[in-house]
Task: structure prediction
Amino acid sequence: MSKLNRFVQSEQNLYIINSITTFKKSCISSLNNQFCNYCKQS
Result:
């Protein structure tokens, strides 16, 4: 059971990291996005 839990945890972490990366990419690519400045700062 613990092995499965660990696997699920790592999958969730990967998903979160991918989401953040995708968000930053889309942010940088659309210059009119109001989050753009925030993205560049972070």
Notes: The radius of gyration is 15 Å. The first helix runs from residue 2 to 29. The chain is about 80% helix and 0% strand. Helices lie at 2-29, 36-41.
